[in-house]
Structure formats: C-alpha cells, structure tokens
Amino acid sequence: MSGGPSSEATAELVDVTVRFGGLLALDRISFDVQANEIVGLIGPNGAGKTTAFNVICGFQKPDSGTVRFPALGRTALKPSQLCAAGVARTLQGVGLFVNMSVLENVMAGAQGHVGRGFASSLFGLPAGRRHELALRDHAMVQLERLGIAQFASSLPGSIPYGISKKVSLARALMGNPSLLMLDEPASGLDESELDELAQLIVELRESMSVLLVEHNMDFVMPLVHRLVVLNFGEVIATGAPSTIRTNPDVLAAYLGVDP
Amino acid sequence: MKRLALFANQGATSSRLVGVLLLTLLTLAITFVLPPVADSQLASGAAISIVVLGLSWLIGWSGQISLGNSGFMAVGAYATGIWAHHHASSPIIFTFVLAMAVGAFSGLIIAIPSTRLRGPYLAGMTLAFSAAIAPLAQNYTSITGGEGGLFFNTLTTPHWFLNLFSGQNATIDANAQWTADLAVVVAGVTFFFMANLFHSHTGRAMRLVRDNDVAAELVGVNLPRTRTLAFVVAAAFAGLGGSLYALINATVTPSTFPLTLSITLLTLMVLGGIGTLSGAVIGGIIYAFSSNLVGHINSLTGINPTSNLGANMQGIIFGILLILTMLFTPRGIAGLGPRFGRLVANRRRVAPLATGE
Q1: How many CB atoms are located within 10 Å of the residue B255 CB?
Q2: Burial (Cβ within 10 Å: 0-12, 13-18, ≥19) of residue A100
Q3: Looking at the partner chain, which of B199, B212, B218 has a beta carbon nearest the beta carbon of A79?
Q4: What would the pLDDT profile of B256-268 be if each residue is shown by its tens digit?
Q5: Which of A91, A22, A32, A86 is nearest to A233 (CA)?
Q6: Domain extents in chain B
Q7: Which fold has domain B2-355?
Q8: Which residues sit opposite A89 in a β-bridge?
C-alpha cells in the first residue's frame, strides 16, 4: 500500500524538514495517507509526531519539502482553509470552546464551510437564520450519532472527559472531512470507550481517510491499516502493524536496544 | 422538548425586532414625562450606551481589550462637526452614516497592527491612540478649531414636533425632548443590529476566537480578519455614539473625549454586564443619571461640589460600584436577573420535598 500512486493520496508529505533552531525536528520525512485508509503515526516522545501534524495543518511551515492533498486538489493549506478543503483535526486534550454549549461547539465545526456574509449577520436576514437552523439540526444529528445528544445544552466544563472527547470528534465530523486527523484520541478513555471509539473510526473510514497519533499500542495495532514510525524526526519504518511489531529498528527505538 | 428550548434560545430576527422596538417605545414614552434636564441626560446616556455596546461586543464577544474607544468617539464627533460646518442642511442620517464610516475606518487603521497584539499590549496600543487624539485636534487648528473646538447647531427640532408643545417653555421643552427621542431611536436601531450580530454566524466566529484561537482556526475562522472585524464594528459604534454626543452638546473640543472617558466606558460596561444588550442599556442609564447621584451624595455629606473631593466624586462612586460588582455579581447588574431566576427556580424545586410530596 505504501508505494501506491500518489495521485490518489488524501494527504502526502514529501521530504519534509523542520528545524527549531539547532534541533532537527523532522528530517526529510515522507509518508502519505491513501483514500479510506487508517494510518497510525507512532513513535517515542519527542519523535516529531505532533510537528508532522502541524506541518500538515499549516501551523508549521516546513524548512524544505512539500505537503500536498492530491485527492482534494490542494497543496499546502493554511489552518483556516482546512475546514473548507475537507481536512478536520482534533486537538491533543480536547480543545473545546469553554464558554459555549456542547451544541454550539459542534455547530462551530462547520464554521469554515458557510459563506454567509457580514451583511446577512447584521440585518438578521432570513437566509442566514435558515442556515443557522439547518446547522443546528445537523449538529444535533452528529450528537445523536455519537450518543451524546442529552449533553447538547451543557457547558464543556460540566461534562465527563470521555464525553468531551466525543464532542471534539463530533465537531471535527461537522465539516464532512475527507481527511480526519486525530491527535491522541484514546488518551484518558476507559476500556468500553476505547472499543466504541475503535468501532466508530472503522465506520468513518468508509467515507474518509483517518490519520491518528497515538501512544496506546493495544488500541492502534488492531485498528490501523498502516503504521508510520517516527524516531528523532526520521521515519524509521512504514508498514502493516504485523511487520512493524517485529521490526528491529522499531523495537530498538521503543526499548532502547541496539539494533 | 430540549430541542425546542434551544431553538427558542436562538431567537428569530422578528422577536429581536419586537423586543428592541418595545424598549425603544417605552423609553420614548418616558421622555414625555421627564423634565427637560432629565431628557438631556437621557440623550447623553443613549449616546453612551451605543459606545458601551460596541465595547461590550469587542471585549465580551471577541475577547480583545480596548482603552481607545473615547478616541473613536472623538473621531466620529469631529467628523460630525466638520461635516456640519459645510453641509448644515443635509439630513441627519447622512451625518450618522458618515460618523460610523469614519469611526469604522479609524478602527481598521488601529486594528491592523493591533491584531498582532494580545492583552495588556493591545490595551496599551489603544490607549496610545485615544491619548493621541486630543493633541492632534489641538494642532490641526484649521480643521478642528484647535483648543476652542467646533460649534454647530445641526439638531433642529421639526415643526410637527414643536406643535406638540405649548406654553412658556415650549421651545426648550421640545428641543430637549426631540434630542432625547432622536438619541433613543438611533440607539434602538443600533441595538437591533447588534442583537442580530450576537446571534449570527459572525457572532459565533468572535466567540470561537475568544475561547480558543487554535481550535477556531481549525474550524475555518480567519483569525486576523475576525479580530479586525470586531474592532471595526466597535469603532463604528463608538463613532456613531460620539457623533450623537457631539450633536446633543452642539460642540466638540479636544477635551470632550478625554482618556478617562475610555475608563468610564469600561466601568459602565462591567457595571451593566459584559457582552449583553441589557448591560449596555444599564450602563447608559447609570451614565445618564450618575450626576444626580453625585449631587445627592455631595449634599448629603456636605462635601463642597467644587472641592477636590467633591469634583472627583463620580470617579469614587464608580470605583466603589466596580469593586462591589466584581465581588458580588461579576456578570454585572444584567447578570442579577438570571441569578435571581435560578434562586427562585431552586426554591421551587426544593419546596415539594419540604412539604413531604
């Protein structure tokens, strides 16, 4: 799968290098995410996983190399362009809007899609209002899909952590993304929540590509089609979970054994 | 059921229109019974409430602090004065639109560098702007009239309105009330527009930026554009408020909009309640009638109003009120209503238990 034609890839990094002063955070890394594929980005702390995410999202400009979204027909995107282009990302932790209800948080997920102008807002035009109501309905559907509709009017600070993570996922799904990027989706979840999440990701994969950063190997291994292993800013292995499990370089990186 | 409640919460444009209209009509009715002096105070209060509302939008919704709104007021007021000098007979609506446009433009000029700044740095930048306005006005004498300022008498009471009054002081009464009514109507219109903004796509973008700018960007909000828009709207409101304020007083001088007015605006906003329409109304009312309160306290305590202490009484009272508000009702006086409602609701919920039901 890894050598597939790049024109089909949802997202693709080619020879991306990022330097923070003297530190080489990413050293000419290349990997891609194919359509309807679940890819796991793993590696020890400080390996550059989040930096790679930030490069894809446009938060971090690579010093060299390119980011492309061939299936979306786009090259490097700014963060505020992601939503409209079809890329959604959840943040490490939860990253919700703390003073807004759960429903409003989810509605916000489609903020980049709608083209209602300032005049429509100012005059309270009927089209703008109809649009808001449709958005509200759509957000309720997302909440119901994840089984958390009863929390619609709650504030993020008053709901359990597991529910918050679902809210941030519902928000990401609002934009009907082609690429869903999940930053540590499993952290802080209990066994039953993990099973539920894994099942959901498998369902989502029918209609989108999923790229996730995760530490919980028991969660990642059975879920993903392909793993990309980073260590000290380099891709040390790429492949199916079964081959990665026995890869000597990966074992060395994780266990500190010399290959 | 819950879904229905959420829809109601959203509020249709028509229901906002009715709400604002009712409040405006009520206030207009009140101007008929108030004495001329109180009508003039009410007019100033209405002008200030527009500025407070703009500030409330900027701070409460977009999360950006401004100490420069007295500067935007001055810009709107000078635009009004200069326009009145050349086009005294043009309809008043042109003056208002011009003041808003000039205010918005000055907001844009300030916002472009300011959107790179946060918190105290942003406050400092806007403070510098409002501090710069008076010296500018003093220096460009040919345009601004220098230290003496500009005088204009553009607010002429129409004949049909004058005819409502008869008696000795007919003209004085009518003029004072016409000014108040005009200010109230203008305030009503701006409150309606702001109510729409609060519940719109644009309003949500502001709150997203305020709560979590990284997440806001990820859902497609353009941060610089949104922050700039917040400033432009607040400055347009301040420009309009300043224009109205100047028209009411028929003059604008470099000392009409001092730096301390920016602080007063901030205080009024907090006292009323940040980010709410009712908070801005309450702030306007407090401003309008604070001089009565000051006079009352001075006479009660026997403090000479022209003494150092007496002259600064308003600042002292505002300061005390501000501390009390922060301590007991951080959401301002407007926040007391919902709190009281919850208290009653809780009592009702507890009551059946107490009666053994």
Answers
A1: 11
A2: buried
A3: B218
A4: 999 889 999 999 9
A5: A22
A6: 2-355
A7: ABC transporter involved in vitamin B12 uptake, BtuC (1.10.3470)
A8: A181
pLDDT at A223 exceeding the cut of 60: yes
- Distance in angstroms (rounded) separating the CA atoms of residues B210 and B225: 14
The model's pLDDT over B300-334, given as tens digits with 9 standing for 90+, comes to 888 887 888 878 888 888 889 999 998 988 889 98
The answer to whether B122 touches B66, Cβ cutoff 8 Å, is yes
- What pLDDT score was predicted for residue B348? 61
Which of B205, B219, B223 has the CB atom closest to A171's CB atom? B219
Asked whether the beta carbons of B79 and B244 are under 8 A apart, the reply is no
Give CA–CA dist B264/B45, Å, rounded: 13
Contact call for A126 and B13, based on CB within 8 A: yes
The CA distance from B234 to the nearest CA of chain A, in Å, is 13
ipTM value: 0.88
Q: Does pLDDT of B169 surpass 80?
A: no
Q: Which of B161, B193, B149, B189 is nearest to B39 (CA)?
A: B161
Would you tell me how many other CB atoms lie within 10 Å of the CB of residue A197?
A: 21
Distance CA A203, CA B263 (A): 55
Query: Which chain A positions have a beta carbon within 8 Å of B97's beta carbon?
Result: none
Which residue matches tokens 């194919």?
A34
CA distance B141 to B151: 14
- Percentage of chain A modeled with pLDDT above 90: 71
What integer pLDDT is reported at residue A129 of this predicted model? Answer: 81
